[in-house]
Amino acid sequence: MRNAIFRRVLGATLLLGAVLSAHAAPPGNTGKKLYCWDEGGRKVCGDALPAAAAAAARTEISAKSGRTLDTVGRAMTPEERAAAALAAQQVQQAANQRMQAQRRDIAMVDSYATEADLRRAYGDRSELLDASIRASVLSLQNLHQSLLSLLSHAADDELSDKPVAKPRRDAIRSQHAELMKQERILAEQRADRTALDAELADAVRRYRALKHADAPAPAAAPPPETP
After folding, report:
1. Across the strands, what pairs with 68?
2. Would you say 196 and 128 are in contact if contact means Cβ atoms under 8 Å apart?
3. Model's pTM, two decimal places?
4. What confidence score (pLDDT) does residue 10 get?
5. pLDDT digits (tens, 9 = 90+) for 5-55
6. What is each CA distance from 52 to 39, 48, 108, 178, 191, in whole angstroms?
7. Longest Cα separation, the chain
8. What CA dihedral angle connects 107, 110, 113 and 116, to 10 degrees?
9. What gap in Å lies between CA 71 and CA 46, rounded to an integer?
């Protein structure tokens, strides 16, 4: 009697397990995938991805529905990874520069109550550069006159069949080198002056744009009265 009851209970348990298994794992496992990749110019598909194709671009397809589950690009080469990292760094740097420019513009508007104040600040810098340019021009004129005098004396020596003394030759070389140096300095100062004018024009443009953006919208006109 006891054995018969045990066998009935065991049979019911096995039957229940079979039913649950059938519901939990229906035919055609939904997790099964097919992989398709390019191999030597031809498309290859399989239910397992070989190690040789692990870095290749591939499409993953549901074995049950045939629906595309995922598309995986090929693995990048070390050179491509380095290029991608550099591009990301450049994008970040550009973003940082834009943020710095925005903070600079906000500080400019906060620092100068009016456009005249802004122009006055740039005017101070312009006057300093103009004074430096005038000093460089005067220095060049003096160096030029000094060099001409040395060359004139050297020419007199040669016309008199006298050798040009070494101190005079050294002075001519020194004066000429100083003249070239001063000419480069003057060229840089004039370039800085031109750049400052362009910077002022850009600053005024940005200042006006920000001031206009911050200005309150004009009040709407009242509707006309109906007679």
Report:
1. 61
2. no
3. 0.51
4. 39
5. 444 543 444 444 443 444 444 444 456 888 898 887 788 888 888 887 888
6. 10, 12, 60, 69, 60
7. 150
8. 0
9. 15
